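Quick one, T. Sequence first:
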Amino acid sequence: MATKIKLNNCVPCIAIHPGEIIKDELEAREMKQKELASLMGMPTSVLNDIIKGRRAVTPEVSVLLQEILGIDASYWLSLQNQYDIDQVNINAKIIERKKNIEIWKVISQYCSVKCFEKLGIIGVKIAENIQTIYSIFGISSVEELIASFSSEKELSYFKKSERLNSDPINIFSWKHFAFYQSSQMPDVADFNKDNLDELVRELNQVFVVNTDTINRTKEILARYGIKFIVVPKFDKTPIDGFSFWQGKNPTVVLTLRLNKIDNYAFALLHEIYHVYAHLFNNREQRYIAIEGVEMDKCEEDANKFAKHSLISKDIWSAFLKQHSLISPFAMQMKIKQFAHQHNINEAIVLGFYQHDVNLYSIKSTISREIK
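Structure tokens:
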């Protein structure tokens, strides 16, 4: 069987002219350039140009070198040939590098290079970084990146928050990174739009236990046909959640911007509502929750579901009415009792209470950390 030869496609950093080898030979033989030039029957200046790489080693010169130095003419010609090839390759490499630098300058204007660097998504090799960005954004050129940004930057979720400083480029980059992460996930079960109540009950139990919460959430949602990922927030991206349909399944993305179980539960259920109420019937739509952006009816409905799917509106209203004026210590005891009675995580009840009475300074021993 014939052996396959793997070619080396490396390009040298510098091209070595045969004149440098001639110079080394002269030094080794303690021969002056003037003496060699005289033997070859050429002006010393011409030989000096060859040695300095300003002239090529011709077949005539190679034959003369063979006669005088005893080194085959084919060797000198092969050196010259390799030098010429290396020069072409080096020039092509430089042209490619310059092209990549220009491409990278444009990319840096339309995507969050610094955020990708922080996550270790891109490194120091520009050519590799360009291909990584192309993969993340699902494009093949900077023109497509510009077109993609231009077509989306005016959408509502790019409006700057009045309360938090947000960056449209970072939001755009984070969103596409979420798309990319979703596309790399393994397949999950088929989605069924008729099992929302069962899903909420399972998730609520995860919230109550609050142990290995993120992994358990991912496993449950996979069984219900929903991909779930946590994508770290980028700088100036006050995003809590994002939901969209990709391929055969919906995807829910959270940032854990606030590492609290009550915020986690609320953001998760908010996006799940979008999946069942909106995305199933309109798979081209996308829902991204950015703090400070004016909400439409879809977002308001998702917020109502996120709270009242765990605590019914009537029961919660009665609790607030009865316990809104008691001391913080007594309030904590009532929250624990209410949570135990209705099988809800204490931290979720506490978080909802603080939000609704606008009292975030309540000191409590209840842990709100996601575990």
